[in-house]
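User: Just a sanity check before I run the rest of the batch. Below are the structure tokens for the first item. I only need the designed sequence back.
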């Protein structure tokens, strides 16, 4: 399920990581790894198993670094993993309300609600994978955490639906939000305005990643 921590919003700077070390079951994943983002939106690209998800978990506080000089705050953060996280016995509306603490009347006016209105009152177990993914993304976007981490956000979405979601991941909808996403697709997310694009090479330990944009 998404990791949600609601605290008072503080002014945040672009994500900076300094000298991160992390190992898992004897594998050294990150060694003296640093990253400096120039913008509030970051795209992490690379093949499956290259360390993207692990980095998102470290940033959000789901994993604890072995050592690090500087990491972003884990307060007021939300991590949405690529695995389905909705409670299957609850409706989409109930899943949204439970995690955001918002009433339906508070989020039905959001422009993105039109993308889920036709099925959001169904139980999650009755939805398709794509429909559940849209509910998860809507829930994260309206929650508006200070740090939003999306792991492969377009899994189960076709090109048309992906194009409908992209506008809500930038501009006024992400105002005040540091957005970091992993992605193994071609250039699907590179169209996001002012996003920094970083490329993993798939080798361990990860010491640095190339900035492409």
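Assistant: Here's the designed sequence for the first item:
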């Amino acid at each position: 399920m998404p990791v949600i921590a609601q605290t008072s919003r503080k002014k945040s700077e672009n994500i900076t990581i300094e000298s991160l070390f992390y190992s898992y079951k004897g594998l050294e994943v990150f060694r003296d790894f640093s990253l400096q983002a120039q913008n509030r939106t970051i795209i992490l690209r690379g093949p499956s198993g290259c360390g993207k998800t692990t980095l998102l978990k470290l940033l959000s506080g789901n994993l604890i670094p072995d050592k690090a000089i500087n990491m972003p705050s884990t307060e007021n953060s939300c991590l949405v993993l690529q695995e389905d996280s909705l409670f299957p016995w609850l409706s989409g509306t109930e899943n949204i309300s439970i995690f955001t603490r918002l009433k339906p009347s508070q989020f039905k006016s959001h422009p993105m609600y039109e993308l889920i209105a036709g099925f959001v009152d169904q139980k999650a177990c009755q939805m398709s994978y794509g429909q559940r993914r849209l509910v998860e993304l809507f829930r994260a976007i309206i929650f508006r955490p200070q740090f939003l981490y999306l792991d492969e956000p377009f899994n189960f979405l076709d090109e048309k639906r992906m194009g409908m979601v992209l506008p809500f991941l930038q501009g006024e909808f992400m105002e005040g939000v540091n957005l970091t996403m992993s992605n193994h697709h071609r250039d699907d997310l590179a169209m996001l305005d002012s996003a920094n694009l970083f490329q993993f090479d798939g080798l361990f330990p990860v010491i640095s990643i190339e900035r492409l944009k």
